[in-house]
Amino acid sequence: xxxxxxxxxxxxxxxxxxxxxxxxxxxxxxxxxxxxxxxxxxxxxxxxxxxxxxxxxxxxxxxxxxxxxxxxxxxxxxxxxxxxxxxxxxxxxxxxxxxxxxxxxxxxxxxxxxxxxxxxxxxxxxxxxxxxxxxxxxxxxxxxxxxxxxxxxxxxxxxxxxxxxxxxxxxxxxxxxxxxxxxxxxxxxxxxxxxxxxxxxxxxxxxxxxxxxxxxxxxxxxxxxxxxxxxxxxxxxxxxxxxxxxxxxxxxxxx
Length: 255
Description:
Elements: H1 4-24, H2 30-53, H3 57-61, H4 66-80, E1 87-93, E2 99-105, E3 108-110, E4 113-119, H5 123-130, E5 133-140, E6 145-155, H6 158-167, H7 170-178, H8 188-202, E7 213-218, E8 222-227, E9 235-240, E10 249-253
């Protein structure tokens, strides 16, 4: 990764280039104006990130509640990420122990853990049934930070799944019925035909949650926070406990 100073220099170069183009054309044209605005936005973001990453080491490493720190970082990511700051890589293993990973959206976080929703008949659903343990990774490039979680998986209550499903856009609700997630699809037309069929089936009625569409909770026994630092001398702090009901122990890690 480039240093913050190097990235700021790149933004300055972009501004100077846009200004030269404007001078050659005798004014600020539309293309040059867009380039200047983009460069200014990039420069503002980089300076903002620099402020966030200049938080004192004590602020970062003396935290005793990992969920409080995670929520703080997630809130900061909401203001800096281009989209989906709640996106996380979810890693599982199949029955043969072969690792698998994909991006999902974290739809809830509290002291009990991280919540996400999926079709339980999907590849991840089948893998979680046979091996109910997982790892999750959040990577916020705009902040140069990561948060890692490892622990057992359990299903959330039906009431929790119902409440979240009811909050989804109608198109997404229909899609949950139409998609046989992770299974072979002969053609895109087959999926679109299934969507139309369920649109006719439910018409103007509320779309119920499919029985196979549920939520999972990852209850961590390990949480690691990582922050980018110069010369690859990154900061890492690990919270670990022997079981979900145990107390957290905290330790620093070498980069």
